[in-house]
Amino acid sequence: MANLEEQAAQTLFDKNLIKEEQFTAIKAYRALNIFSVHNELKFLLYLSMLLFTSGVGILIYQNIDTIGHTVLLGLLLLVTLTCFYFCFKNHPGFKKDEAPFPNPLYDYLVLTAVILSCSFVGYLQFQYQTFGTHYGLATLIPTIISLFCAYYFDNKSVLSIGITGMAAYLGLSVDPKHYFENEMFNNTTLSYIGLAFGLTLLLWALYAIKINLKKHFNLVYLTFSLHLIGIACIVNLCDDFWFPFGLVLGIAAYYFYNLSFQIRSISLFIFTVLYGFVGMNIFFVQMLTAIHFDDFFSIFLFTTPFYFIGTILGFIKLIKHFNKKTSDDSIR
Amino acid sequence: MIAYDKTLLDNVYIDQEANRLKESGFISKEQYKDLSHELPKLKSQNNLFIRIGFFILGCLLYSSICGFISLLGLGAMDNGYLFFIYLFAFIGFGAKEYMSQEMKYFGFGLDDAFILGAILALLIAVGLTFEQNYDPNYLAVIIVLAIASSIAYLRYLNTSLVLLACIGITGSAAYLIFEYLIIGKAILPFAMMLLAGTGYLFSKKKLQNLAFPYYYNGLKLAKGFCLILFYLAGNYYVVRELNFSLSGEFYYNAVSPEIPFALLFWAFTFIIPAVYLIFSLKSKDRMMLWIGFLALCFSFFTFRMYHHVLPPEVALTIGGLAVFAFTYFSIKKTKYNETGITFKADRFTNPNAFSNLQALVAASQFGLKPEVKVEESPMEFGGGGFSGGGSNGEF
């Protein structure tokens, strides 16, 4: 492989497309023959964290009767606090922009601590009903802890836990599992709440841009927001009051489309286009059923290849437009 | 053999190298932009999602064209429907050829859809032909799959075709051995291992002596496929359960019986991942490292399947601690290495490749669930809506 890459670099140099000092730098770097296991080791760290927290969670669940609640709660609290202690000790402190730990190890420690504290609060409520019948509080407190940690320690994973917590407080399940099982909104009221929550997240992200607070979190917020709005609108498009949601989806898609240029996010762009396209098709079908188009069904079938060719040309145009706007020549 | 314009194709690979250099910071973005404008090249989609999107659109287009033709030929299609399926395959190949030569598409998504759709149509057509004239014969279908996708890959270089070709070759070999050899069932694992080993050595040799980059990705994929196949062919779980399901379940009260040479397969199960891991670190082969790691995980799964040593929760906790300790010491050890194996981020690989994925996993694994409605369960589950640190799902 290195051989072929060097060959390509040589061609670039021969064609006078890169400068000589660049070429020598590349050659020298390749000669080091680095085999970086950075990503692999980080992945292992993450895996160990997942395994450990899952194992501890189940252990607690199973041994509630034998060890005694107070001991278990105490142990859990101790471990959590130790984790937090190390995190606070090693973190440079809150900053408005990116503030990473000096050692990536601590990112995982923060995540562990947050998850354990979620378990702690949940256990407390389960066993002692600390919050009584204010069940929302039991969700809200871990959410606040995670949001605080996300902003203080600058951790995206924790932030996404916090957002799911906020959604859970409103009665929504917005994690990917439910997303893929298409169980996000099992009734209409929930889908309205979801739409409103999505719009709120969007507004917060825009406000965060304005006050320069953790701009790199915006992708997470906007992703959640886009999916919430998109799914809520599409679910409602298939329902009785489809027309206004078609309009909302259209406006939202147009807005996100422009936004994706600004923050140069390809994933946002793709999903916007996808939701827009799916929504548009459902909208068309609803229109056709509304005007009783069934009689001309076979004529309609004949036009499908041309419709698809048209959409393909449209997509190619959109992508070219995206490439031009972001001034970065190719989307990777 | 290759359908594309050679200079344009060469420029695709040069552009890829330039992009790598841009990503790793050796050349500036502006320089890459100018350079990329100067190189005329084939049109391809480098972003996977966009490519998948175009692939889906291409599938829709292809099927709607097929539907269109079927509608036109509806009257004439009494018994000659086979002819139409062959026609569809022909259209698919023709469209791909046109796209490669005239429209300069290479890995654009649309062309992938047409070539894969054409192969699928061809397989259906062959299968139906055999069903009409003789018994259904799957061997013919798999052999056609192997041949058609190999030739298509050699001509069009779409990497997905390699996977199809590998599946086709493996499938036809397995089918031949299993159906037409008397001792086929007994030697099937060993034959598969032999096949995978030969394929691995072949693709490795080819990779080393590669003068042009055209077949690089395909050979790499074939190498990975052979590694996985080699491991699975020797894996105890796979051998035992496959042996069981191939011999009919009613014999053994639905419990798979012990297999002959069990010890040998147990040895394979654990030695192969270890060899993969060590060898990959030695030869600096990232793909092999990942395959080795996944194989090791699967080996643990295999072991736990038949020997219940520890309860799962204890195993999870201890495993987590052990992995953490291992990783911690590895990081300590490789932190300051300047060459060779190191924890330092390579300029050519993205150090934050997993960060977004991790956020996703965290949200799905530990995301807070809404409270269970009070009316439904007033007492027990009031606050139990938590995922409780991963204890979700199981309980």
Automatic annotation (TrEMBL), chain A:
Transmembrane segments: 43-61, 67-88, 108-126, 132-153, 158-174, 189-207, 219-237, 243-261, 268-291, 297-316
Domain of life: Bacteria
Annotated ranges, domain DUF2157: 12-158
Keyword Transmembrane helix: yes
Protein keywords: Membrane, Transmembrane, Transmembrane helix
Protein name stated in the entry: Putative membrane protein DUF2157
Automatic annotation (TrEMBL), chain B:
Transmembrane region(s): 48-74, 80-98, 110-130, 136-154, 161-178, 184-202, 214-239, 259-281, 288-307, 313-331
Entry keyword set: Membrane, Transmembrane, Transmembrane helix
Top-level taxonomic group: Bacteria
Metal-binding keyword on record: no
Keyword Phosphoprotein recorded: no
Name of the protein: Membrane protein DUF2157
